[in-house]
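Renewal narrative, Specific Aim 1. Our central claim is that a sequence can be written position by position from structural information alone. The example that follows is taken directly from our test logs and has not been curated for this report. It begins with the structure tokens describing the chain, in the order in which they were read.
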């Protein structure tokens, strides 16, 4: 088990123990806030996981030689890696598409966006989407360099659709930010509605034995959602303890970046999982929300569950996974910080 996940599980157990003691340690309320996320997670992740993977597995011929597209849509541990592995036998393509692209853009589309868009209010959503653009600015050059070093055949041509989509988003950011917000908001609503529809199809399959997906995928989705909720429980208990014991030190770090203590904690927690950062998002100041979103696009999960998954299925790619996600995450954080300073948006 990944050490960070194990530590968060220990904190979740501590919160549960305090719940048995009627909140004597003041941690049970944090544990409760984590548990109630399970329903929202199932609505946002369960449908996509069950329906999307069932469709892709059943129509693999439609996506022949489309590894770049598939890996930009699915996280590695939500079927992205296994699908890419079935489509190619070239190690470098598997590393780039099945590991690097799925754990960044794929994770954003299939995992982070549905959850954050379902949880954030309108004002927070604008800050989150702005941070995502900074994250893309940091990610794109890192992926291009990685693809060239890995010597992917016809790399630029294959990667061109991803480059074009990212370039359009970046162009809108500089030309008309409001237009960009409208485009991403519409996309987010589409993702949200699709998530609800897919969840409904999963329910039909579960109760009426229809063939929209299968029992194995439903069981996998339930396991994933349960794990996510327990991790959030642990992260909230962890945050509560850290904020009590090290509040002054965290505030000093925040002063350097001109962000508050909740924003600092969010970035730290994102190294394990961006889901742990979500409950703190509404408490962050404006700049902190943007910096957290910028970092989480690439840097989230780098020492969390994704690392454990990648280490179990492709140990040789772990170095690539850690280096690319850390460099891209830190670059996105740096770009966001510098641009917000330049534009004078510091709070």
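The sequence written for that structure reads:
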């Amino acid at each position: 088990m990944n050490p960070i996940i194990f530590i968060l599980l220990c904190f979740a157990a501590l919160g549960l123990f305090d719940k048995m003691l009627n909140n004597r340690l003041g941690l049970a309320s944090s544990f409760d806030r984590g548990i109630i996320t399970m329903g929202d997670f199932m609505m946002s992740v369960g449908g996509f996981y069950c329906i999307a993977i069932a469709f892709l597995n059943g129509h693999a011929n439609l996506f022949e030689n489309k590894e770049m597209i598939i890996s930009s849509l699915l996280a590695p541990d939500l079927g992205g890696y296994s699908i890419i592995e079935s489509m190619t036998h070239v190690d470098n393509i598997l590393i780039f598409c099945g590991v690097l692209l799925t754990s960044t853009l794929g994770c954003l589309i299939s995992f982070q966006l549905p959850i954050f868009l379902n949880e954030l209010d309108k004002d927070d959503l604008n800050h989150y989407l702005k941070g995502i653009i900074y994250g893309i600015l940091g990610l794109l050059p890192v992926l291009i360099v990685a693809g060239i070093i890995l010597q992917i055949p016809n790399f630029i041509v294959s990667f061109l659709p991803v480059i074009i989509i990212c370039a359009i988003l970046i162009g809108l950011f500089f030309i008309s930010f409001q237009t960009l917000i409208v485009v991403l908001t519409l996309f987010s609503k589409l993702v949200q509605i699709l998530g609800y529809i897919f969840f409904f199809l999963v329910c039909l399959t579960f109760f009426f034995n229809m063939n929209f997906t299968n029992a194995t995928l439903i069981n996998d989705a339930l396991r994933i959602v349960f794990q996510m909720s327990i991790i959030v429980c642990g992260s909230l208990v962890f945050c509560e303890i850290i904020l009590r014991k090290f509040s002054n030190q965290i505030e000093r770090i925040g002063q350097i970046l001109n962000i508050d203590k909740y924003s600092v904690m969010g970035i730290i927690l994102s190294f394990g999982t961006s889901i742990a950062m979500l409950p703190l998002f509404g408490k962050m100041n404006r700049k902190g929300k943007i910096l957290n979103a910028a970092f989480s696009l690439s840097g989230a999960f780098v020492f969390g569950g994704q690392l454990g998954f990648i280490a179990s299925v492709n140990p040789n790619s772990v170095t690539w996974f850690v280096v690319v996600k850390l460099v891209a995450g830190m670059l996105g954080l740096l770009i966001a910080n510098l641009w917000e300073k330049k534009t004078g948006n510091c709070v």
